[in-house]
Specification:
alpha/beta; single chain; Nucleotidyltransferase, domain 5
Length: 254
């Protein structure tokens, strides 16, 4: 079995692979956790799905939290796994990265782009809705050519509340039935949810113009289904995009 770990700012995804996906699970990203604590978390996830860590022949890690990367890798090694690969400069991805400094491209964006380029017709636009919303573009020649980074839904709502005196802290549950709302809470929810959907629609339109064609559209991340229900463009939801990309990258670097 191959263990894949995708460390995000808020959530860490864990997956097991052997000729396909065996299981996936989500953990809270804890910046203060030790390598021992992460070793125990990973062991518990594997045990929960009926797999022993003794069956793990290798692991691959992608992380957007640099201070945790080594901690998690050492945690994996505590489980007796010496073959641990990290996504970063020098690792083979099969993807041509055409941005100003390829080393600056986050490992999460790399893994998603690798999976998207292999599973969807190119060009493809990848929309990752996490703590931040990142939108990446792979062109028809399977080259990663750049993208957009914008605040995530919760970040936007939190910033609005903190910078104003009278607005409350609100849960971002389902969107209001109408964009035009008649009370403060619904107005804030409408702005956060419909506003994000409209921003994504607008960026897709402009990116499509620059590409000169109609791209495939794939979205991933916790709020993806909620926002995709509000966009005018049809987005394909792929919650396992990063996990699949990690497995592909591991196989390219055996």
């Amino acid at each position: 079995m191959i263990l894949a770990v995708d460390v995000g700012n808020t959530v860490t995804a864990v997956g097991g692979f052997s000729d396909g996906i065996l299981f996936t699970e989500r953990l809270s990203t804890e910046r203060s956790a030790t390598e021992f604590e992460y070793a125990m978390k990973l062991r518990s996830v594997c045990k929960l799905y009926g797999h022993s860590t003794d069956s793990i022949e290798g692991a691959v890690v992608s992380s957007v939290v640099p201070t945790l990367t080594d901690t998690i890798c050492r945690g994996i090694m505590k489980l007796g796994i010496s073959n641990v690969k990290t996504v970063g400069p020098g690792i083979k991805t099969g993807l041509s990265i055409r941005i100003d400094d390829p080393a600056q491209l986050g490992s999460g964006l790399v893994t998603q782009a690798v999976a998207a380029a292999n599973e969807y017709p190119c060009p493809v636009i990848i929309i990752d809705m996490g703590t931040a919303i990142s939108i990446g573009v792979v062109d028809k020649n399977r080259c990663y050519i750049g993208g957009v980074l914008m605040p995530g839904i919760q970040i936007s709502a939190d910033a609005l509340r903190k910078r104003t005196s009278q607005l409350p802290n609100i849960p971002l549950s389902d969107a209001p039935r109408r964009v035009i709302c008649t009370n403060t809470v619904d107005c804030m929810r409408s702005g956060a949810l419909y506003g994000t959907a409209c921003a994504i629609d607008g960026l897709i339109d402009r990116m499509s113009e620059e590409l000169g064609c109609t791209p495939s559209l794939v979205a991933t991340g916790s709020p993806a289904e909620k926002i995709a229900a509000l966009t005018r463009h049809k987005l394909t939801i792929d919650p396992l995009l990063a996990m699949k990309g990690l497995y592909m990258i591991y196989n390219k670097n055996r």
